[in-house]
Specification:
The protein has helices spanning about 25-35, 55-60, 80-90, 105-115, 130-135, 160-175, 195, 205-210, 215-225, 250-260, 275-285, 295-310, 335-340, 355-365, 365-370, 375-390, 400-414; strands at about 20-25, 45-50, 70-75, 95-100, 120-125, 150-155, 180-185, 225, 230-235, 265-270, 285-290, 320-325, 350. By secondary structure, it is an alpha/beta fold. The protein has two domains: about 20-135, 3-Layer(aba) Sandwich (Rossmann fold); about 150-390, P-loop containing nucleotide triphosphate hydrolases (Rossmann fold, 3-Layer(aba) Sandwich), CATH 3.40.50.300. It has an eight-stranded mixed sheet, with helices on both faces. Helix 6 (about 160-175) crosses helix 16. It is elongated and about 75 Å long.
Length: about 425
């Protein structure tokens, strides 16, 4: 099973609500597909794995409709593979996609499979992520990456500043990397995104969550409040007229629509442990856990790490941001000790600065707007670049072009 080390380099689109049935000849491939079925990107797909290879598939579909995707493993030679596929074609419904997993690297076989309408040919052994990628590509445009990357930001406990981190992170990605970004404030009752960006939209994210029958791309577009050329906001209404004990899949439709239109979606996840909040964390492309250097945060981060490692075996570890470090007179766990205890490096450290963060919050500004050249703005910029895998555009220092332009002007005049 993959350890998730390459998940940052590969952004794999989640599969739609489809049915996949696999007919394997070896336990190894059956185990791979079984492991893949538990991956977060396949949580909407219904996967069934059985043994028997192509003969079992032909027998199974003689009197039953075929699923969206059939996966067949073959150990035999070229003629055996093609003969079995010809038999399957007689019972296969139109529109069913077929993925073949073989044990021979044979170009002629590959061409014959494609000519017969096979969607993909994989050569065993097949890593878990390779199988998920192949299944995902069946329902995406060839050669294109999925557009939307979701970044879930959550606090290890209340009051650690996870919303502040989420908002400044989203702002940094939109501003520094020129990436179209949406910040979705999911703390419906008490969210602060509207305050932090000095926005007061007439409608909020609750309009999309509480009315799933009306949810579509046009509604989401109307709910977005534009903060800048590259940054839009789905603000929370901060009203207590209804509770937020949502169903587990209540936010799925909204996330799917945002993924289809926006490269970067920052999810400001409230500090609560409900089925829908847990689902948001486990299904996001990237996770940022915000903590303070104290024992409660350390315990909660370790618990979250254990759960997420089990739920996301093919993904990288969450990134941990230590906020409010260096608070005067407060005993703290050292950054190095915190990192050692959770078994991973700390992604970012934000020193305590009451004046800076208080000014930004009261003025409805981001940290980089209050103090553009400060350390905190630099940390948010670096964190955004690391999460998205992109670097900031190179900027020339002020005045650096002046001598060059003067030299060109003199050369033109002469």
């Amino acid at each position: 099973m993959s350890d998730g080390t390459d998940s940052q380099e590969r952004l794999i689109a989640p599969l739609p609500r489809i049915t996949i049935q696999a007919f394997c000849e070896t336990g190894g491939i059956a185990d791979v597909i079984g492991a893949a079925s538990g991956d977060r990107r396949m949580q909407k797909a219904h996967v069934k794995v059985q043994m028997g290879g192509a003969p079992a598939a032909v027998e199974a579909y003689r009197h039953s409709p075929t699923p969206n995707v059939i996966v067949l493993e073959f150990q035999g030679d070229r003629s055996g593979v093609l003969g079995s596929l010809d038999q399957l074609s007689s019972v296969c419904d139109a529109g069913t996609k077929v993925v073949v997993i073989g044990h021979v690297n044979d170009v002629i076989l590959y061409r014959e499979l494609i000519r017969r309408g096979v969607s993909e040919y994989l050569i065993a052994p097949v890593p878990v992520l390779d199988f998920i990628q192949a299944a995902s590509d069946l329902f995406g445009s060839p050669g294109t990456e999925p557009l939307g990357r979701t970044i879930a930001v959550a606090g290890a406990k209340g009051g650690v500043g996870s919303s502040t981190v989420a908002h400044n992170l989203g702002w940094a990605i939109a501003k520094n990397l020129s990436s179209q970004t949406v910040i979705a404030d999911l703390d419906i009752a008490f969210g602060t995104a509207g305050l932090d960006f000095n926005q007061d939209p007439p409608q909020g994210i609750s309009e999309a969550i509480f009315a799933p029958d009306r949810l579509d791309a046009n509604l989401v577009d109307r709910l977005l409040s534009k903060c800048s050329d590259n940054l839009s906001l789905l603000a929370a209404p901060a009203m207590l007229d209804r509770t937020t004990d949502l169903t587990e899949t209540a936010v799925d439709g909204l996330i799917d629509i945002l993924r289809a239109s926006t490269p970067t979606i920052v999810l400001d996840v409230p500090h609560t442990w409900t089925a829908w909040a847990k689902r948001l964390l486990t299904s996001s492309d990237e996770i940022v856990l915000v903590a303070t250097p104290d024992l409660a945060s350390l315990r909660n981060v370790k618990n979250l790490f254990d759960l997420l490692r089990q739920a996301r075996p093919n993904d990288s570890k969450p990134r941990v941001v230590l906020n409010q470090t260096g608070l005067p007179k407060r005993p703290e766990i050292a950054v190095a000790e915190f990192a050692k205890a959770i078994g991973t490096d700390i992604a970012a450290v934000l020193p305590f600065d009451a004046a800076l963060f208080g000014t930004a919050a009261n003025n409805g500004q981001m940290i980089a707007e209050v103090q553009p050249s400060g350390k905190h703005a630099e940390v948010f910029g670096q964190l955004g670049a690391a999460i998205t895998g992109r670097s900031e555009p190179r900027r020339l220092r002020s005045g650096i072009l002046d001598p060059l332009l003067s030299k060109l002007a003199r050369r033109k005049a002469s």
